[in-house]
Design a protein that fits this description.
Elements lengths: L1 E6 L4 E6 L2 H7 L2 H6 L11 E6 L1 H14 L20 H11 L2 H19 L19 H11 L4 E2 L1
Helix pairs in contact: 3-4, 4-5
Length: 155
């Protein structure tokens, strides 16, 4: 499967050649999407994805590091580390792509950073199904929206 990443903000495109098993294992979004195609034609399929190229490249390295059934495609040294600079983009993309493990990691880092820099008290990092409780902090909403408004991922 070829994933053609289109980064409109940078006016760049890149094609990632991905094993179908790796995509279907880690990105539940593509399970339904791939039902449109014949089972034997996965190498001929090109899927356009509108996303920040750096974010998707990071996610692709992450799925390679995790692998399928514990069989990593890349070495531990090549495994990406989630940083504050990338967390919002990964958080948004992992939610859309249906990557609950990665989404949980990104949400935990984001909420920790939010607590440190915005001053929001986070009571339970284990229940991160949504961020609606931030509505209880109206004075902080503008800051939260400023952090998230420039990060998008459309498929």
């Amino acid at each position: 499967v070829h994933l053609r990443i289109i980064d409109k903000d940078r006016n760049q495109e890149h094609i990632f050649a991905c094993p179908l098993s790796l995509i279907l294992t880690h990105m539940t979004f593509f399970v339904e999407y791939m039902k449109r195609f014949d089972a034997g034609t996965d190498s001929d399929i090109e899927i356009p994805i509108h996303c920040d190229l750096d974010v998707f490249a990071w996610i692709y390295r992450w799925i390679q590091a995790v692998g399928v059934n514990g069989d990593a495609v890349c070495s531990a040294a090549e495994s990406p580390v989630l940083t504050v600079n990338r967390v919002v983009g990964v958080l948004v993309a992992s939610q859309f792509l249906g990557m609950p493990k990665l989404h949980q990691q990104a949400a935990q880092l984001y909420l920790l950073q939010l607590q440190q820099h915005v001053g929001v008290q986070i009571l339970a990092l284990s229940s991160l199904q949504n961020l609606e409780y931030l509505e209880a902090f109206p004075q902080k909403r503008t800051t939260v929206h400023e952090h998230t408004r420039n990060h998008h991922c459309d498929f």
